[in-house]
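#help-structures
NK: newbie question, is this the right format to request a structure? protein is Alpha-L-glutamate ligase-related protein ATP-grasp domain-containing protein
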Amino acid sequence: MSKSKEMDILALKLFSLVINTYLRIRYSRYYRRFRRVVGYHPNVAIPERYHEKMLWRKMFDKNPEFRVFCDKLASKAYTESKCPSLKIPLTLWQTGSVDDIEKMPLSENMVIKANHGSGYNYFPSGAQGDQEELKGMASQWLGKEYGRREHEWGYYGVERKIFAEKLLPNSPDDHFVDMGIRCANGKPILLSVTTNTKRPDQRIGYFDLDGNRVYTPELPRGAIKGLDHNFELPLTSREAIRFAEILSVGVDYARFDFMISQSQVYAGEITVYPAAGMSRASIENQIGPDTICNEHWDLRDSWFLRSRQSGWKALYAKLLRNYLNRKAMLAA
């Protein structure tokens, strides 16, 4: 190894010591939770494992597109611009004011959402008290800046709105399931399928691109159950994969969600912080989704390492990029 390369490695190690020390002090509570949930102490400055990369993304990779992806309404427009032929659930109305909700129509054929976070869903029952109940929930939603707890900065500053989305037509012969496709810069990696989403009988399974089961989680009692072993992917899976390929070009890693049935494909959300980067890491006797995805997630494709940085970040980006380039050459 040349002397210049040795100096680069030494400089990167010194940077990593300073960066990791600073982040552990600045975000001590978050780091403790990471260690408790994920199961190891992260090296954020030189991220090698999946969860380290996700934490690095939160701390360094301020990709402007992440704010688009974290806004459910803006991501619809993004998807339409990239894939004009892809169906998108119809937005019936939207508002940034709780007071406007009293004027908005509600029915059982829609779901009400907030655009700036996850888990904000309300299904009107058609009852007389729907408007008042929704108004109370919407007030809480709009009053919360989502993402602060997990340092998911992509949600910061998203203009908060409440919107109604038309429910997709389900039938016993053509039932929709949720499919998440993990992709790395135009390359689909892994499929996850969830049935009966957000219901007591919710189930999940992981598949390769050919529909073969690749992962069956060892879940604790009370957690989401795995799909039945005889479950087969809908016929439209291949179509969804093609759309994911297009949408993911230029994005180093994300999960692209779809709602698919045997005959239809609809766009869902674009998720840049799956499970907030706080899922349990793979254990020695079982390779999980994090390990599978990590093999294909190349940080050299990230916005941080592709864009011009300034100050100490410029030197850090150069050193990290050189390190990753050497690592890739040795692995080739």
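mod (FA): yep, format's fine, and the tokens are attached above. Residues 45 and 262 are 44 Å apart (CA to CA).
NK: thank you!
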